[in-house]
Amino acid sequence: MQTKIITIEGIDGSGKTVQFNRLYDNLTALGYSVDTKSFPVYESYFGSQVGRFLTGEEGVFATDVDQKSMALWFALDRFDAFRNWRDGEYDFLIINRYVLSNAVYQSIRDRDLDKPDIIDWVFELEYERLGLPRPTLDLFFDVNPESAGRNVDKKGFREYVGGEKRDVYERSMGIQERARNMYVRASQRYDGVCIINCMDGARLRTPDEIAGDVTELLLSRGIIEKR
Description:
two-stranded antiparallel sheet; single chain; alpha/beta; 227 residues; five-stranded parallel beta sheet; globular; 14% strand
């Protein structure tokens, strides 16, 4: 039996962690065994360096590092975290930010606007060269950047930024809008990337409404069964 991998993706402040927890609760309530991972792992060797780039702690921001070099730090953080992972040990693995996040965010920074995206390069790096498991589905939770920004400001204290402030990606509305557009393009390019609409006009839909759409999608794709 292979573990089914579902990733939670979206721009910063799109409610990923809420839906990550809802999906865990819903799958376990159906009787499935579920493992979880969340990236970056800021306490890890590679993840701690990612955190330093995101905050500019050492005088260099993630937005200043060339896209492939930055992608490598994120990729190695995941490679390290999967060293002892065994496929089939659980029915499901839910991941909060995975390879698609890396591919999207390293393609849309100000310094890279005149370059082609590196989505396929990141996929080859992480899935083929580093051997990370491919997801069954990437779920992109689509929220407009204005609503997402308000959610970021409600997060409170976070260790890696040393307070309640935004990191370098969260501060840039341009990056967030471009990331949203790149996620949409990825959904058109890859069958496994699915959009979950989190907005009803200007209103942010409730977590229950959004989680209900996720359940319906998993049922329609035969990933879960009614029990």
